[in-house]
Design a protein that fits this description.
It contains three helices and five strands. The longest helix has 19 residues. The N and C termini lie far apart (about 50 Å).
């Protein structure tokens, strides 16, 4: 009886681990890209795919996450306003690309703009920290 309970417990843990560890797979084309270049030479990048998958590179470290639909909608709405040019004296220098168009670099970090939201994503891994 104890062996059956132990096997049942391990089975439940395995199922819970499999559900919690769902792999984030980018699907389709990149919708939004942000790059950050710091004065110390560090480069960061995030690519957001249409299915909400996000692939981030912080120097040599790569991580993946999935944005919920409401945050994807925020990004799409902000993209309708375009990407305003920024200042080369900014640190970091932000570059933003929308659906494969030409990169705007430097991009202005105006509150609520696409560049601002993507910059928040790189910092906090969410648009609404």
């Amino acid at each position: 009886m104890k062996l059956k309970m132990l096997l049942l417990a391990f089975g439940l843990l395995a199922v819970a681990g499999a559900c919690a560890g769902e792999e984030v797979k980018p699907v389709g084309r990149v919708t939004f890209t942000i790059t950050r270049s710091w004065s110390n030479g560090m480069m960061e990048k995030a690519e957001v795919y249409g299915n909400g998958a996000v692939v981030m590179e912080h120097g040599d470290y790569t991580e993946k996450l999935r944005l919920p639909e409401d945050q994807l909608a925020q990004l799409r709405a902000a993209a309708e306003g375009g990407v305003a040019p920024g200042n080369n004296a900014d640190d970091p220098i932000i570059g933003v690309t929308v659906s494969g168009s030409d990169e705007v670099r430097p991009a202005a970090l105006t509150e609520g703009s696409l560049a601002d939201l993507l910059n928040r994503l790189l910092d906090d891994h969410t648009l609404n920290p």
